[in-house]
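Q: What residues go here?
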């Protein structure tokens, strides 16, 4: 993966834009470089923010110049091939009952598939956490079957319940808290994705792999299911 451009975007920030490739390999590399830059340039670097094709590095301009930061960024990236990021597989229970999957029937009709087919295809994939965004802890997941790709809703809902598992375009995601949203809701998990009192508030992190496993409405209501986290 090549760097397309390295640009000063503020007096305290430099943005790296990368040439895209296979989305999972691409994001794994960006996650690796984020980790490397955060560790190698501390305490000069105050934050490193991920995007789909970018990393934005924030630093203290009173301590170091743009030129020196740019040099250190290039040095760190050139040596990053010797580093590896830890990888986890997270297994999350989902109830696909239509009481919780309120758009499941519409998604099935859109694809001319049965409800069972939709559930099977969605729960049989292994997903990759590209990054967390639009609300705290919301995972953008790639790896969904192309047969499930569904347009966003034309009119977003004002309130989507916490734990809703949803589809938009070729991605799937989970709403960690109640919020507005325009994704198609096909199920719900009772796993808590965001706990603000913890040192690491988000259950899911960029670079994680994720699998959904179906549970019954009875088990969901009784909270008889649990998340599994497996280190690779």
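A:
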């Amino acid at each position: 993966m090549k760097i397309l451009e390295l640009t000063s975007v503020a007096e305290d920030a430099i943005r790296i834009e990368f040439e895209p490739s296979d989305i999972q390999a691409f994001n794994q590399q960006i996650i690796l470089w984020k980790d490397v830059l955060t560790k190698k340039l501390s305490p000069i670097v105050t934050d490193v923010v991920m995007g789909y094709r970018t990393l934005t590095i924030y630093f203290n301009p009173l301590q170091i110049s743009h030129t020196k930061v740019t040099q250190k960024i290039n040095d760190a990236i050139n040596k990053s091939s010797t580093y590896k990021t830890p990888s986890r597989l997270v297994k999350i229970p989902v109830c696909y009952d239509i009481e919780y999957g309120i758009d499941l029937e519409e998604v099935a009709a859109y694809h001319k598939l049965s409800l069972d087919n939709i559930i099977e295809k969605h729960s049989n994939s292994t997903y990759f956490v590209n990054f967390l965004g639009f609300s705290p802890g919301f995972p953008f997941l790639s790896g969904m079957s192309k047969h499930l790709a569904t347009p966003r809703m034309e009119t977003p809902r004002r309130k989507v319940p916490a734990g809703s598992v949803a589809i938009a375009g070729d991605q799937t995601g989970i709403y960690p808290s109640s919020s507005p949203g325009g994704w198609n809701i096909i199920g719900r998990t009772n796993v808590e994705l965001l706990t603000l009192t913890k040192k690491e508030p988000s259950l899911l992190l960029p670079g994680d792999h994720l699998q959904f496993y179906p549970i019954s409405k009875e088990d969901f209501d009784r909270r008889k299911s649990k998340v599994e986290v497996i280190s690779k």
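A: Context that may help when evaluating the design: Helices lie at 23-40, 66-78, 104-111, 115-123, 217-222. The radius of gyration is 20 Å.
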